[in-house]
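Justification of computing resources. Each target in the renewal requires a structure prediction run like the one illustrated here; the chain below, 249 residues long, is used simply to show the kind of job we budget for.
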Amino acid sequence: MFYSPLEQFQILPLLSLGVGLFDFSMTNAMVTTCVGLAFFVFIYYCLSVYGLSCFPTRWQLVLESLYLSTAGLVWDSVGQQGQKYFPFLFVIFSFILISNVSGLVPYSFTITSHLIQTMVLALTVFIGVMIICASKHGFHMLSLFLPGGTSMVLAFLLVPIEIVSYVFKPLSLAVRLFANMMAGHTLLKVIAGFAWAMMGSGGLLLIAHIVPLAVLVILFGLELAVALIQAYVFTILSCIYINDAIVLH
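Resulting structure tokens:
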């Protein structure tokens, strides 16, 4: 049983395995990550075995909804030039969405509530954006840090500011997802612990514990919406960064 709202974020070894100085233990974070990655194996298996039906099943409707949502997002944000990056953005969106939603299952683990995990995702997007920009524009990509029509006097002030803001893009992308997921799950644990303590006290508090339970149900629905919104926000910001790399804006 967890007694602290923050203990739910501890990475715990499920199977200890070490070779010399290297630790290959299987942790709850690793299992959750594998579950998220197994989703794409499941998609490939379903498409290769069953294909697509003119009369879609429930699973096909879910997959088509994810596909159309991501495709529309990429088209609106990047346009025709960004269609080649659709598979990458679809994987990012689906993985974050599955990780966020699976973390709402009781006694599960939310990998997106750890800054290291969200930072890896953000750096993956950021490095990819830099590669796209460098391959498309070469050294001309440095014009990102100097807006057009800027005088030499202002250049000494604006260039450092633009460089700092550009470098902090992956940090803001990672912290936004991490902070929202961690705060929401912490709040759910606090309310649940409060309701459990009232129920264990007996008497009138045993009846009154229905109030925090009702609040918990509402917050759970809100956290589900946050899980969907944060996956959407992460993906749309990734699309915006890719579009900026393409048009050099």
